[in-house]
Prior knowledge:
The protein has 493 residues and is of the alpha+beta class.
Amino acid sequence: MKHPWFTKLAALAAVVLLLLFGLGLIEDVVQDRQHYRSMTAQSVASSLAGPQTLMGPLIHSACVESWDVETGKGDERRSEERRREFLLTAMPEQLQLKSGAAMEERARGLHKVNTYKLKTHIQAQWAPLTSLQPQTTVKGSRMQCGTPILMLGVGDARGIRTAQLTLDGQTLALKPGTFHPQYSRGLHATLPESVLGATDGLAATLDLELVGTERLSIVPLGSNTEVQLSSGWPHPSFTGRFLPSEREVRDDGFTAQWRLSSLATTAQQDIVQGRPVCLASSDDDEQAAITTPGGGCADSFSVAFVDPVNPYSLSRRATKYGVLFIALTFVAVGLFELMGGGPHAPPLRGSLPPEGAAFSSWGGPAMKSLRVHPVQYLLVGSALCSFFLLLLSLSEHLPFGAAYAMAASACVLLLGYYASHMLGSVRRGLPFGAGMALLYGLLYVLLQLEQTALVVGALALFAVLALVMVLTRQVNWYGLTAPRSAATAPQSP
């Protein structure tokens, strides 16, 4: 064979393609397990309550305006009644929510889901309810409005445990539903007609106990809204249209505070226009929390009680480095094969074998004494792929750090042992195993980093590239790729 290196490169390319196919299958397994975890969250939500959204309280009144219209002429002249149905809404001037969320973990088989029990104290104040006074649009029309209703919209009403409403010092009975045409989930109380003439406005307090799953969203409906939220969960994720004005995240929990003005949000106008209240799902999509989506979402903010060491998300991130793992390991094996053939150095740049010496005795140890078969490359790559499957399976039963340490240790020991025989000596196998341990350690660091993972990975790759260039700076690549028959032909006397 005139060009053994070209043949070997073709074989290695086939090995790499086969390993990439295996990595793809492992990624599919990770996605399937992640999908099962999402189904578990949906199962818990269907049995308990889903992600919750609080909207309100607000006051509304359904009105009907009717008038008569003459149609036809002469004997066909008729009088027809026309109607206009509309809803009047009064938003609170001041809205304060003080909430505390106690976390509780629910499990379905191997999968765990974060649920919470929210205890919130809501204070709302209204100016005189002039916005509930209907205005006629047709001269001589008749106006009829229903009883004013105070409502609180809730994302999943099944999560309501207890609720108590006090209006101007008087306790009112709460009933399910809201009687709102767009936001039907929640609870309501019927107000006396006398509130429409109150010159001092209204003041209401609402104590609510609510359970939910993984996420809580709030719609800031007050002209001035202040929300205080505390929880024993140390890993909150703040999302939505507004981040907290103040927050403190500790090892034993967090506290957050939002202060918003109606000048900074269109939430009031959004609700009047009937826009849906949306919240972000675990897949960063948007789904309706109170009503059916359509035409944009109302302003809201939320906090997600996320698990930062979710084994499936971390395993998925780890598999994305699988190609890099294989490439760096194959480069290391290639360097050992090229440089580690014994006391002889590889052919230097511009050098030729001494007269009377065969090429194999000059640079041969690099190509003959230490030759790694493509099947051996395949076995090494398979061990690398098995790490990601081990990591996934172990992390479902153990903390992610312990699972990673066990999977990485097993692979490092296996690769170090095999490299000692593949490379011809323990002296070469030990540094190979140490390099693999360093590579697994770097991957673990990258998995723990989010904001700086790219820069750390880029610097590490640059360092590896620099090392390879330094080690191979004097290699005569033309000599390595020369036809073997010409290189090993005996010299004429």
